[in-house]
Structure prediction request, 57 residues.
Amino acid sequence: MAKLLKPYFPALDGGKKGYVAHECVIDLSQVKKTSGIINEDVTKRWIDYGFHELTMS
Prediction:
């Protein structure tokens, strides 16, 4: 998932080879600045498509 999202969202890198474990951390701050879309909007949309909601911090 992290590899697929990386072209669109900055992701916290998982090490020298770029691998992450069972989760990844993406930064949505640029999305908020350019569009006004917040992380709650994204997680609600993921639920609409049947994905497990995001953990937010």
About this structure: The mean pLDDT is 81. Residues 2-48 form one domain.
